[in-house]
Automatic annotation (TrEMBL), chains A, B:
<keyword id="KW-0813">Transport</keyword>
<keyword id="KW-1133">Transmembrane helix</keyword>
<dbReference type="GO" id="GO:0017004">
    <property type="term" value="P:cytochrome complex assembly"/>
</dbReference>
<feature type="transmembrane region" description="Helical">
    <location>
        <begin position="25"/>
        <end position="44"/>
    </location>
</feature>
<keyword id="KW-0997">Cell inner membrane</keyword>
<comment type="function">
    <text>Required for the export of heme to the periplasm for the biogenesis of c-type cytochromes.</text>
</comment>
<keyword id="KW-0201">Cytochrome c-type biogenesis</keyword>
UniProtKB/TrEMBL annotation, chain C:
<dbReference type="GO" id="GO:0017004">
    <property type="term" value="P:cytochrome complex assembly"/>
</dbReference>
<keyword id="KW-0812">Transmembrane</keyword>
<keyword id="KW-0201">Cytochrome c-type biogenesis</keyword>
<feature type="transmembrane region" description="Helical">
    <location>
        <begin position="72"/>
        <end position="95"/>
    </location>
</feature>
<dbReference type="GO" id="GO:0015232">
    <property type="term" value="F:heme transmembrane transporter activity"/>
</dbReference>
<comment type="similarity">
    <text>Belongs to the CcmC/CycZ/HelC family.</text>
</comment>
<dbReference type="InterPro" id="IPR003557">
    <property type="entry name" value="Cyt_c_biogenesis_CcmC"/>
</dbReference>
TrEMBL record, chains D, E:
<dbReference type="GO" id="GO:0017004">
    <property type="term" value="P:cytochrome complex assembly"/>
</dbReference>
<protein>
    <submittedName>
        <fullName>Heme ABC exporter ATP-binding protein CcmA</fullName>
    </submittedName>
</protein>
<dbReference type="InterPro" id="IPR027417">
    <property type="entry name" value="P-loop_NTPase"/>
</dbReference>
<keyword id="KW-0547">Nucleotide-binding</keyword>
<feature type="domain" description="ABC transporter">
    <location>
        <begin position="2"/>
        <end position="230"/>
    </location>
</feature>
<dbReference type="InterPro" id="IPR051782">
    <property type="entry name" value="ABC_Transporter_VariousFunc"/>
</dbReference>
<keyword id="KW-0201">Cytochrome c-type biogenesis</keyword>
Amino acid sequence: MRDLIKSALAITWKDLYAEWRTKQVFSTMLIFSGLVIVTFSFAFDPTNNTIRAVIPGMIWVITIFAGILGLNRSFISEQYNDSLHGLIVSPIDPSSIYFGKFLSNFIIVLFVQMITIPLLFILFDYKMNGNILLFLLVLFLGSAGFICVGTFLAALSANSRSSEMLLPIILFPVISPIVIAAVQSTRILLIDVEEIESLFSWISLMAGYDLLFFVFCFFLFEFIMEV
Amino acid sequence: MRDLIKSALAITWKDLYAEWRTKQVFSTMLIFSGLVIVTFSFAFDPTNNTIRAVIPGMIWVITIFAGILGLNRSFISEQYNDSLHGLIVSPIDPSSIYFGKFLSNFIIVLFVQMITIPLLFILFDYKMNGNILLFLLVLFLGSAGFICVGTFLAALSANSRSSEMLLPIILFPVISPIVIAAVQSTRILLIDVEEIESLFSWISLMAGYDLLFFVFCFFLFEFIMEV
Amino acid sequence: MHRSLIWILIILMSVALYLVFIWSPIEKVMGNVQKIFYFHVGSAWVAFLAFGVVFVYSILFLMKRKRSYDMIAGISAEIGVLFTAIVLTTGPIWGRSAWNTWWTWEPRLTTTFILFFLYLAYIFIRRMDGAWEKKARLAAVFGIISFIDVPIVFMAIRWWNSKLHPIVFGDAPNQSGGGIEGEMLVTLLFCLGVITLLYIVLLQKGIYIERTKLAVENVKKNIQEKLMK
Amino acid sequence: MIKTVTLNKTIAEKTILNDINITVNQGETIGILGPNGAGKSTILKIIGGLMKPSFGHVMIDNIPVKENNLEIKKKIGFLAHNSYLYEHLSPVENLTFFGKLYQVNQLEYKVKELIREVGLQFFMNEPVRSFSRGMIQRLAIVRAIVHDPSILILDEPHTGLDQQASRILNELILKKKEQKTTILMVTHDLAQAIETCDRFILMKKGVIIDDFVLENKNVHQLKEIYLRQVG
Amino acid sequence: MIKTVTLNKTIAEKTILNDINITVNQGETIGILGPNGAGKSTILKIIGGLMKPSFGHVMIDNIPVKENNLEIKKKIGFLAHNSYLYEHLSPVENLTFFGKLYQVNQLEYKVKELIREVGLQFFMNEPVRSFSRGMIQRLAIVRAIVHDPSILILDEPHTGLDQQASRILNELILKKKEQKTTILMVTHDLAQAIETCDRFILMKKGVIIDDFVLENKNVHQLKEIYLRQVG
Ligand code: HEM
Ligand SMILES: Nc1ncnc2c1ncn2[C@@H]1O[C@H](COP(=O)(O)OP(=O)(O)OP(=O)(O)O)[C@@H](O)[C@H]1O
Ligand SMILES: Nc1ncnc2c1ncn2[C@@H]1O[C@H](COP(=O)(O)OP(=O)(O)OP(=O)(O)O)[C@@H](O)[C@H]1O
Ligand SMILES: [Mg+2]
Ligand SMILES: [Mg+2]
């Protein structure tokens, strides 16, 4: 177990170090989020009054679309020179690859959210007045679930030649429960505060999803890395 | 000029033939569109009455997001074994690469639209009653502009190691005029038929954009293919 | 030359600040917030200018392939993005008091936002991996294409009949142009001059830094090559 | 000790390996020879743990390699056709990363030493992206041996190496051989093969057609045997 | 005829080529030798039109290759480190596609003939994706010659080829030589180089250090010269 964490951290460290030097994934995700916001704003006429209602949806649509870019990269970068094979032949538990990649992706996504969400609030002129701690919890749980499944499926799709195309189509259906739960709890927190009592069931749904999928992915990962 | 078209068609043929055998890009784009529709229907509560208002936006959001998958693939597939270099050293005009790729991408996108748009209408229970020919014209002009710029920028971003990340962030801002124009004209045709007189200025904007960018891209492409 | 420019700039800037905050009249409706107007408009103009420079030098680069052209284009784009960012922050600050909202999706604002992203994308292309010739060439191509948005931003309020964003210069479709007092106009023009000068100084500084970086790189490689022999 | 027991491999209904039985004793240096498409790389991949046989199994040190056995993986050093290197990282960073995964001691010192050994000391901190083919191959070789494996699997290791680097590689193999490392090498270059290997396995169309020891280092004799058998 | 005039190349402030002047007459077969990272591939890329020199220029048939000259490109056949093949297409489809770009006559017949020549006839309609390294290299070679170029640029063409394929390749080169094709070949395998080349260019650290003709086909002499000059 200690070895597992050690090699996981070595992988996380390698990824974050490369990212720190170039800041490529991070800045791309950031700009992409901005662009998705703009694109949506002209696709869906935001001067409309009902616009506040779409903010919870936007938060998660942005996270997912920008997140997919990062998830893709995370394993595509292991494809040049077949370096993923280098990880496979090395004496580490396959799950540590999963855990390492999960951590680096999760950290990057959290950083991106720290910037995009305030920006979204400003651009759509929304004043936060719900419970901020709960809101952070929801973000944390939702993103964790998304990245947990996302990392797993990114590894799966990395086996295909056209992985950057495959990932979104296998990812969307699987994450739909967590997306629904995340959007609903965000909606309750940001807009329909009166429904607060149903919030907890959504949150526990998310926590359950996270736990379930993390354990699942952690143990099933071995089969993905098998050759 | 005849040689240019001949080699362009050889490239289009190769791409469409590979696509015909695997149907990979086509089916991925299709499924992805379906998933985007579903995701949006969670995020934006489709039981809402105002939902008809988002249909024009949806048509174009789907086209763009699915289109990006295809555009990316179109040049990433030339990166394995450096086969793009094979095209560069061969005695063909660089613009014929552009033209060939433009054609194959455009054809695929039109096919995808032929399925997704009726599907969208069915799922959102919308009955088309505008002028169908004009609608097709708008689709044609909008997609042509999008693919015209998209093919060009996909070739540009293919120079980068992480092209699948670079493409969306350089593409979105450049295509924003055509997206706005396309969404607006679609909206007028499908929903606000009373504003029909302003339709023609949007359509001529699109035609102008298409023409301008096609000529620009066609002649600037040589600089992109330079080594 | 550079030094003296900086001094001139500092002096002119203080004059400009004096003109803005003390000499020029306070606007009746909006009050003191309106002072931001001078910076807002100034930055916008300089951003346009900077992108114009990118455009021109991109074309020049594609024709002549001189590294200095590419350098100027790159630095100018960075300065342009900086000033666009200023427009995008001063605008909302002003908008907060004028329109009682930070942001609305109005043509001028939207197109400016897109302009910002366009040149961010330009900078991204420059930061791609690979040899500078390649990056310079691709960036130049993109610099030419993306300039198309600049006239669109400028014309946005004129074409789309905006109700919110005011027009001062030129003919407006419904408002008459020139709703500005003489003293304000003088201050504005002066500010424009000063900010343009600021742009020139920044550009020079940027080129200087870039050159130094190159020189350092050169020395490093030379030492390495000597070691290998 | 490596032993393959009736290895068979079929991909997409095509037989690639057919009843491969090899026994390699510790400290042996074996050259696997054969025409293109014979299945040489496939055998190495199976032994290295990069591919599963369709039938049969591999025993390493008398343990059947079935599950993902970390102890055995640690013993193997694998150099494949691809380099497994990260292009945006420098040689030092690459080796340090792989060294960490293999839990190598005194990593920092060792990495520098290895890089020096293959003559890349002046490129130590440059990203691998800009390397020439031979430079990448040099680095790929040290990547495979960073953890002092007791079994070394080399797939055409001389590819792209210049004279000097080939010599370095041969010396390295001989040094490893003295340390009782088991070495399996695929190559098409008979002259290089004879320099280091004592025993040769000839393959053709997925089957082993010969397996002989040749200690006299006579390349002509090897060539003759090869041509006679493979034609 | 190929002539390079004070070719210089710097990438990222690093000098890779330094004043390269080579004159190659029509029908000559030249081997370019030198250690890893000497800049051999870079020269070939510049002549082949895959890279621009930072300074200096290349003349082919007395025309300076500046613009994108289709006539000259048609004359050149270029085999680089990578195969340029499309993985999801079969050999026939790959060659047909490139043949179309080069406007080859009687394409269908020719493609089959070439594939047969390098012994891939049984894999004619399988996607290249599943090929072994040597099979890919065989196909890459015929890709480069599908249009009967009068200038042939080969970067380590023997890589991964087995004995038989190397022989086929050498014969092919000799045949082309008889047809007065100009051939430039980079290789590290002196034995193969001597089989086909008459003139050798030695490079080191981006400069040419020797340029000599050796007609006696004596590999030991070549090796001696190489080692003396390059060390
Ligand atoms: C919120 C974001 C805003 C953005 C992105 C923005 C953007 C711009 C840009 C790009 C220009 C220069 C173009 C030109 O001169 O034609 C400009 C000019 C100007 N802006 Fe803004 N603006 C914003 C908010 C505001 C607000 C709130 C006001 C005042 C109510 C304002 C008043 C002006 C005026 C008076 C000019 C000079 C206009 C002219 O004659 O064209 N802007 N703005
Ligand atoms: N994924 C695959 N699908 C189908 N066939 C495959 C696949 N991988 C390998 N093959 C086939 O298996 C055979 C053996 O391949 P292998 O790579 O082991 O050859 P090799 O002996 O290493 O040849 P070389 O000397 O050219 O490297 C080849 O005929 C190849 O076509
Ligand atoms: N894109 C690049 N950026 C920086 N340096 C580069 C780049 N490409 C090549 N080089 C450097 O140029 C030098 C020559 O490279 P080249 O590929 O021409 O060598 P080579 O003689 O073909 O070597 P080999 O025998 O190993 O193939 C090397 O030192 C390499 O590091
Ligand atoms: Mg092999
Ligand atoms: Mg080389």
